[in-house]
Amino acid sequence: MGALNLAGSGLASSTARASPSSQSAFVALPKTFRAATKTAVPMHCHRSITMGSTLKTKEQVAEYRSWTDEELDQKVADCKMELFFLRMQLAARQEIKTHRFDALRKTVARLLTVKREREIAEGIKPRESRKRSKALEHARGGWWKVANIPEEFKYLTTPGEGDSVVEI
After folding, report:
1. What pLDDT, on a 0 to 100 scale, did the predictor assign at position 50?
2. Considering its fold, how many domains does the chain have in total?
3. What whole-number distance in Å separates Cα of residue 71 and Cα of residue 100?
4. Residue 119 domain flag
5. Residues of the domain holding 102
6. What pLDDT, on a 0 to 100 scale, did the predictor assign at position 51?
């Protein structure tokens, strides 16, 4: 490990001192020098990044509000199906993009929030809402019957050559 050269910084002998532990190569520096060595992004830059993503989600929610109830239900089913396949890939130890879990869960939450906003506008109480959604899901045969399987997960649903299919 290279030694720290403080000759040109004006911090040579008096301000740089060795640490008490003999195993560490740590050199204690004054706070002003330590702060100057950190090259962090200013806080206003971080805020602009998060504000940009907030604007994007607001645009998405505005788009969701323009959809019909059937389109919302279809998108919820598709997101749940993709979550299911991601969990399958995770269990099979395949390489996955783990950020998709959070993104899909948040998308489902946004879609269901838009649906609930509409129900509130119609005057439907929470208990009636749950009964309605369960009855609708039961009538359709479950969300997995309605969902479109994404192309990247089709290989999980169709048997390939050499795969044994057991019919019960």
Report:
1. 52
2. 1
3. 21
4. yes
5. 67-153
6. 54
User: Distance between CA atoms of 125 and 109, rounded to whole angstroms?
Assistant: 19
Mean pLDDT, 10 residues at a time, the chain of 168 residues: 53 49 54 50 48 77 93 92 92 92 95 95 92 82 70 63 54
Instruction: Give the 3-state secondary structure of residue 73.
Output: helix
Closest by CA to 90, choosing from 79, 80, 100, is 100
Contact residues for 111 (Cβ-Cβ < 8 A; gap 6+): 64, 72, 75, 76, 79
**What pLDDT is stored for residue 27 in this prediction?**
58
Cα(142)–Cα(86) distance, integer angstroms: 19
Torsional class of 93: left (φ above 0), alpha (ψ -120 to 50), beta (otherwise): left
Position 103: which residue type?
A
- Strand, helix or coil for residue 16: coil
Does residue 109 lie within any of the structural domains? yes
149 lies in a domain?
A: yes
> Position of tokens 């998108």?
75
Q: Measured between alpha carbons, how far is 146 from 140 in angstroms, rounded to an integer?
A: 7
- Residue 53 inside a domain? The answer is no
pTM over 0.70: no
CA quadruple 33, 39, 44, 46: dihedral sign: negative
Query: Are 140 and 146 in contact, with CB atoms under 8 Å apart?
Result: yes
What pLDDT is recorded for position 95?
Answer: 92
